[in-house]
Amino acid sequence: RSKESEVFYELAHQLPLPHNVSSHLDKASVMRLTISYLRVRKLLDAGDLDIEDEMKAQMNCFYLKALDGFVMVLTDDGDMIYISDNVNKYMGLTQFELTGHSVFDFTHPCDHEEMREMLTHRNGLVKKGKEQNTQRSFFLRMKCTLTSRGRTMNIKSATWKVLHCTGHIHVYDTNSNQSQCGYKKPPMT
Questions:
Q1: pTM of the model
Q2: Do 40 and 82 contact (CB within 8 A), yes or no?
Q3: Which residue range is the domain that position 156 belongs to?
Q4: Total structural domains in the chain?
């Protein structure tokens, strides 16, 4: 039992989180955040993104300010693998409370069907000369724990806030399940 606690402690401190956050995580949260972190890393590796230079990194901090919203990255099954830390300002929920959970746990049940449709990429025939539309724009109701006075309330008392979600779908090759060292990669579903 003590060895298990030691392993979870070490794993928590390997996550890219502030020390005061990682030292207060329970075991389930450590696993949830670790899995999300690995999925984001896989997503970034699959996209063959170049390392940003200094100027791009400085510009990125201004995007969230200009956005008047927050950034959320979802898997095709609705898992929130990344949420910008300013989500708290808009929803009252923290980045750590949401990361690794299903978006369906925080959205109105009447919006689930549309949400699933938005997360689906259709591999159909496309007319010659046209690309498949990966753009998405839709409204959904999400749990909000902010009161009208800016205070936060318990999640069980949360109200629904209408969000306008815009973005696009990226499809990556998931067939390559061999790592660079030749071992099979674990499934990331």
A1: 0.70
A2: yes
A3: 48-168
A4: 1
